[in-house]
Amino acid sequence: MFEVSVIIPTFNESQNILRVINEIENNLKNCDYEIIVVDDNSPDGTADTVKKYTTSNSRVSCIKRTWKKGLSSAVVEGYALSTKKHICVIDGDGQHDPKNLELFVEAFENNEVDIVIGSRFLNKSETDGLSTARNTLSNLGIKITNFFLSKKVTDPLSGFFIITNQKFGELQEKLYKDGFKILFDLLMLNKQLRVKEVGIDFRSRIAGESKLNISTVFNLVGQIFENISRGLIPANFVVFAFVGTLGVLVHLIMLKILLTQSIGFIVANTLSTLFAMCSNYFLNNYLTFHNIHRLFKERMKGLIKYCFANSFSILANIGVASQFYLSEFSVIASALFGILAGLILNYFLSVNLVFKK
């Protein structure tokens, strides 16, 4: 009998989750299965909805996380509770059709494979469950991510797949836990995985809101850099550095605007610096750290901490640049070393002080 632990990461899916669970149960009747819901402390009570259901079905369990967020880390924590020979990852919004699970099981039984992927784009360029813009964005993402895979697949960004428990266990320590595209991470980390793709029905969301946003795109780019560097360059650092670059442009644009208003350089530069720091904080909160500060009070406290951390980074920048310049390095080289030192310190303080989870 085919054994599978179905892991469903959720956030605000109270209106969808029981339907998804019931459909999974109906389509795995001939399998030895368990369902593990990993909820990121959903304000809409998703975890409570599932926990009430578990009283009548011992095959379903629920983890309510208040200590960490993110799809990949949710799957890793679900894996820690799994007891079956295979791991299935499926979304909790109902867009993945559990009827396709039969195709996954057949693929494992008829082929020697390590992972079966539910592809939205097998033998087609669009899927009805996505808008035109989302189809275009997905196809672009697939082309980019396939560039980094030795074996091309039609949907490396799919959130619906089954992998053997053994193979997942070999890779779970290396996975980018803050990521949202765990399948791409698995394929990139182990290029020797025996892969089989099956076409799936991708349905329209019935209730709730999509979690895909621009932050997910930046997160994916950072994930690529982290994997290529074998963890030497954290994904968050890549996005953090990009935000810092934007901050320089914001500073210069703001400075030019203020100077055209006949404001003195010292005042204009000070205001531009403060404005750039504020914009960097809000962009980092949204893009780099996935909106970890949601409430107004949290954001105000975070902004104050960020400005405080930046003061140390500025001192590090000046100190390191001066030291290199006194050691007879060129002006440009000295300035770049100073910027790098300030950036690294700013990132370290941001992770451990400002945006600490």
TrEMBL record:
Membrane-topology descriptor: Multi-pass membrane protein
Pfam families: Glycos_transf_2 (PF00535), GtrA_DPMS_TM (PF04138)
Keyword Hydrolase assigned: no
Keyword Transmembrane helix: yes
Keyword annotations from UniProtKB, A to Z: Glycosyltransferase, Membrane, Transferase, Transmembrane, Transmembrane helix
Record InterPro entries: DPM1-like, Glyco_trans_2-like, GtrA_DPMS_TM, Nucleotide-diphossugar_trans
UniProt subcellular location: Membrane
BP-aspect Gene Ontology terms: glycolipid biosynthetic process; polysaccharide biosynthetic process
Stretches assigned to the Glycosyltransferase 2-like domain: 5-166
Spans through the membrane: 237-257, 263-283, 303-326, 332-355
Domain GtrA/DPMS transmembrane: 240-355
GO molecular function: dolichyl-phosphate beta-D-mannosyltransferase activity
Gene Ontology CC, one term: membrane
Family as reported in the entry's similarity comment: Belongs to the glycosyltransferase 2 family.
PANTHER family per UniProt: DOLICHOL-PHOSPHATE MANNOSYLTRANSFERASE SUBUNIT 1 (PTHR43398:SF1)
Identification of the protein by name: Glycosyltransferase family 2 protein
Species of origin: SAR86 cluster bacterium
Lineage: Bacteria, Pseudomonadati, Pseudomonadota, Gammaproteobacteria, SAR86 cluster
